[in-house]
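Lab notebook, bench 4. We co-purified these components, and the gel suggests they stay together. Before we commit to crystallization screens, I want a quick structural picture of the whole thing.
Request: model the full complex, all chains together.
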Amino acid sequence: MSAVPIVERRRPVANVYLGPVAFRVDVRCLALIAGGLAVLAVLAAWTMTLGSFPIPLTEVVKSTVGAGKPEHEFIVRELRLPRVLCAVLVGALLATAGAVFQGVVRNPLVSPDIIGIDAGASLVAVWWIVTGRDTTFLPVVAFGGAAAAAMGIYLVTWRGGVAPGRLILVGIGVNALLGAATTFLMTRYPIERVSNAMLWTTGSVYATSWADVRVLAGTLGVLLPLTVSLMWPLRVLQFGDDTAKGMGMRVEVVRLGLLLSGCGLAAVAVSIAGPVGFVAFVVPHIARMLAGPMTGGVLVLTAVAGGILLLAADTVGQHFLPVALPVGVVTAALGAPYFLFLLYRVNARL
Amino acid sequence: MNSEHGGRLRTGELTLAYGSQPVVTDLSLGLPDGQVTTIIGANACGKSTLLRALARLMKPSNGAVYFDGQAIHRLPAKEVARRLGLLAQQSNAPEGVTVEDLVRRGRYPHQSFLQPPSRDDHEAVERALELTGMQPLRHRPVDELSGGQRQRAWIAMALAQDTPVLLLDEPTTYLDIAHQHEVLSLVRRLNREEGRTVVMVLHDINEAAAVSDRIVALRDGAVLADGAPDEVLRPELLERVFGVECDVVAHPRDSRPVSIPRSRLARRGSRTPEVEPRGELRAHGLRLGYGKREVVPGLSTEIPAGEVTVIVGANACGKSTVLRALGRLVEPRAGQAMLDGRDVHRYRHREFARRVGVLPQSPVPPPDLLVEDLVAAGRYPHQRWYRQWSRADARAVERALAATGTEDLRGRPVAQLSGGQRQRAFLAMTLAREAPVLLLDEPTTFLDIAHQVEVLDLVREANRERGVTVLMVLHDLALACRYADRLIAMKDGAVVAAGTPAEVMTPELVQAVFGVEACVVENGQSGAPLVLPVYGHRDDGGRQAVLAGRAAVEARTPRTRAHTEVT
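Here is the predicted assembly.
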């Protein structure tokens, strides 16, 4: 009776019961995650063979596990591996943050780099750098900036509810304002400090160290399980506040938890790699196209896909262009056309 | 006005399709001039699509719509707009636009760039405002008007277009009986006094019968019947159109046909006796409001356990707000909402959710969600993040799917379902919670008669077989009377009457609550009272004094014109 073509989709779901613990596991999503991890490993190994001093793949693998030649081991373990790991972890953090924000706001056009969350982190971080403070606290400070920006946007948008359209408009406004403030800071401080900040704001994983990897991995280790468990209530929150409240959910608590963890993910990534654009925005869409609506499993897939995308972009920017470009430039070049395509698609459906 | 038979507007071998899916095939239909023609049919039968094509909003994939013998999709848009005025199903006025401004925009097809508004323009606007009674409201922003006023403003805009033909797509959706009455009386008057040809789509058959000269019944994009209301409103025909058994009775005042869809269930006495009723709700001095606006100034009422209680009332009388307060979605400013003698806000979140299932008005599913996952989401209050699924959950979901007949739809995305299917899926989600109390806010909005009966039958089945307490808000009085054990009539945030439908539903009450003159007769099958509004076509807009009382009481036993027994 319906005029719309009927699309049947059944996903193989396995129910796992372990005493009081029980989960539904989407088998296809699990397979995709495994495949993604394999791709990631191959891509990472191959990337480490490239550079001004080429190293064969077998040597790269040996050096990684600590069984290579000393000169190779130094290059792989001290120079290339941290950069690769940073790229993967930054991609994973940003993509997860994007999925969280898109889910909370129920709008596919929202991501922390578009609505000014990254800009909040950047402003505070640039101020921290140009005033010459200790950069070990940069992640914490950046988180403060991101959270402040998120709260500001939320409060300005809130009128008995958050209308996604208004949130995007407010967010773009805040983004522009914070960007202007960042530029202002850069014109006010000595050039040698500013040039540091400048490189940072283009978004780059150049010259990252094991210390950075530890911060990123720690953040992901804490926040990814948290957000994966929050995907469970988010699934219900997406029906709207009324339905969610009617289901006995403390909507404000869940939403605050999601927003704070989203801010944390974005801010830590930004504090190390700078505001790398479009990863947060694009990757959740790709993951959803592959695996269906956002669930805990799809969120993990999003993280893996984010890692792949950023690592690939960094590889391209570093080795396959006439001039080595920071990864942020490459992701923007990829992301902008996708953004336009998505807008076109959304319009076509209306 | 031109009144030759056959009419200036007609379709010839019209085929309409979305993509490769044909919605209407080979339709040849003449629309008589100077008459009100109404297109009826089940959800998704192609009636709105046909109207869109008549208005040149859709290009036919074959055949054409002709006006005065010319195919309209080959004519310039403005020229068509000078002949055909359209009121689309849902229109959004830009923020802050006043009524006068909106109506003036209707003159667009008569104007050209840089040409100042002419005297004709001015006169047409004034006339449209006058006809719709919108002069006193002309400087008010459209988005601040009530539903009925807003719809009248949009009709005024279509009128200012000054076209011989008016096309109206569901002009009464979202409106309560009073506003429906207001809009349809206006349509009737425009036709009778101005001689305008009106073609409209309505989902309420009885409204269609009340105001139309001619009814066209569509099914699967083809004409099933075409004729005067009493030719089309026959039980066997309605069953073919909507797939639901109907009784047809004559209106006691003007003997026009009135159809009543039959319920699968007998009304009373079928409750399984061993089921113990659960969950009693009580409102005690409830004061509710939003921002500065107070909606309910202090309301006390009781929703007895194990019964179906329905709240009726005009738009914006606070009925949904009361339901939301009882479902703990609104915090009262004073007073208490109580479940089984305990304040609803004193329950723990999940505990309350396990006891009370709330289905809010027109819920929106997230994109790509499958029916099965939607229904499974209803188990949320029984779950924990570390125990996301149990065998009890699986069983409850299966039961809910089976009860709502949505098993075959489980693998389909919710967004692709028809209105009736979608509403059933949401109901399944609410039922899957297996709560002893169900609160449903307008569960029949957007549904055609067959689906309305289907959904409400389901609700009553839950009540009769499992002793579930049900509280619903309905704007359709006929359905409210038929499915309620107890009716609560509200006006301006206060309870005007409460009791069995027969006690509550009197012509005086309908007049007092809705401001509409109506007859109340007894429905043959169920014995429930049936409210039949009287559509006057006088200059006062159809609002006549209360005369109906006596007449209606005398007419308590209706003539049943036809009766089909199908098992």
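Chain A has one domain: 25-349. Worth comparing against the SEC data before the next meeting. The interface with chain B takes residues 1-11, 15, 17, 20-24, 106, 160, 229, 232-233, 235-236, 238-240, 242-243, 245-250, 288, 292-293 of chain A (CB under 8 Å).
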